[in-house]
Fold this sequence. Notes:
The protein is of the alpha/beta class and about 230 residues long.
Amino acid sequence: MTTLYLDCSQGVQKDTFAMCVGALLPREKCNAIAQASGVADVVSAGEVVNAGGGGNVGAGGNAGGGGNANDANASAHHHHSMTEVRAKIEAKPLSQAAIAAALGVYDILAEAEARVHGASTEDVHLHEVGSDEAIAWVCAAAASMVELAADNVVAGPVCTGFGFVDCSHGRLSIPAPATADILEGIPTFVGDVEGELTTPTGAALVRYFAEQFVSGEPAGCELVAQVGSW
């Protein structure tokens, strides 16, 4: 049985999550996932990086209801409904398991946004998290996790960062409201780095995939992915 440890000591961000989990896969699998998820379409060729043992595609920052500044230009002022997001995910040439996982991550995001704004999940308007870039990275992360197929997935305490972030909803304190909602009940700490280290999409990914939260890397853990800022 294999155990995957998600190291959240530097936060959780969708692109780093996808890259570092993808790095545990063979290079050809990484490339196939980048193409099928759409990541290869939303980043330039100059932003293709080699992460660990497997090549993967990386660029941009995470965004969500709180939004990271790096994603501020990615449809930040456009409203994306969950119906629209679901349709885009279901249209990806990915396995049914990967699509189901990506939809599960977005359900967590929609539920958090609904609680924050006092609306139904179908009525919430997703800004940064509903962009094509965000959808591609979440799909890449989901597909990589499905392909890796670890028997157990555990995560360490999540570093949130501190300060303020500017996004489509204005200037918000860190963690952003949606992020804080998703992380409720999960061990977190502020850390000493100012900035949005964990975003709503990152929080939703670790919430969806982690089966257990532990104080640190388990002894004898076979697989480790540092899913936050490098």
